[in-house]
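From the shared-data thread, chain only:
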Amino acid sequence: MNRNTLLNLTKKYDSPLYVYDAGKIISQYNTITGAFSKVKNVKINYAAKSLSNINILKLLNQQKSGLDTVSIQEVKLGLLAGFTPKDIIYTPNGVSLKEIEDVAKLGVQINIDNLSILEQFGQKHPTIPVCIRINPHIMAGGNSNISVGHIDSKFGISIHQVPHIKRVVENTNMNINGIHMHTGSDILDIDTFIRASDILFDVAKQFDDIDFIDFGSGFKVPYKEGDISTDIDELGKQLSKRFNEFCKEYGKDLTLMFEPGKFLVSEAGYFLAKVNVVKQTTSTVFAGIDSGFNHLIRPMMYNSYHQIENISNPKGRPRYYSIVGYICETDTFGSNRRISEISEGDILCFKNAGAYCFSMASNYNSRFRPAEVLILDNKDYLIRKRETFEDILRNQEICI
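Structure, as tokens:
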């Protein structure tokens, strides 16, 4: 996005500020659907948890996307955004049977990832279609916190427990209409993904009347210039061939599903923050900004990399800085980064700020969460107001 545009937005809406490019989101959606164009039935379910602003949901609904949700609240957001129940899949982890039953009443696709809940739900609601989340026991992902398909993961039912799944299904006569997996995020190796999909095909063969197979997501996006990412076109070529062959073997045209979040919105997002102070110490030059991990926690939580540019002085002499926040704990966004010379008052731009950034923001240190702006058809729209002190106090009950 143009630097002048971003600078003007900070003048208009102040900082810190999240900005999203609708055109990039649409382009990414078209890229993934195009990669699997040789499959008859393809459904892309956007992972709402990555960026759940209702305007983003409405934008993707307009593209005919489905919605992947992990809570009843996300389901209700999706319905409010215009998604039909049949276009929403609900894949919770560790929630109560009651929440799953409440979601089932809304008519969305249920996805269950543990034997206990599967048996309880099957006994009470054998006619409601259920998808099963399988743990393929494959380690994949860019960080241990986002690798969810390995043997020690809390997610999914082990492939070694498929006989137990079948016993529950036979005893309850429940309706299994889909098989699902998600191995992790930031997957680069296509062979790893194909290996996991082959495991999923083997599981799917053991159920007689499924309608879809959900391969999760986790595609890696580039985080810096020259960075490598998942080759979606090559994955599409290899997996489409295998999927079509499986459908012939199964005797039915199934739907191929994915649930991308980061792939669709990461590169569309920009986080803008103002430099409060430039501080020289005996070993480091710190640039302290008007934000912290209360607004962008990924570098601290996942050791994630966000490219940082000084858009106020893009042609300045490059120097080395550690970019830090204003939280009363260590909140370092980047150490010893080579950035155009920074002065107090400059605006820094953090790239790849669309996924798991605002959605993980908090009011830690009693700070306000920032505003969000959407660029759509070359116009800027405020899609979330900056919080105020009244928002901090809202729902607090004073009893003293």
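The two ends are 50 Å apart (CA to CA).
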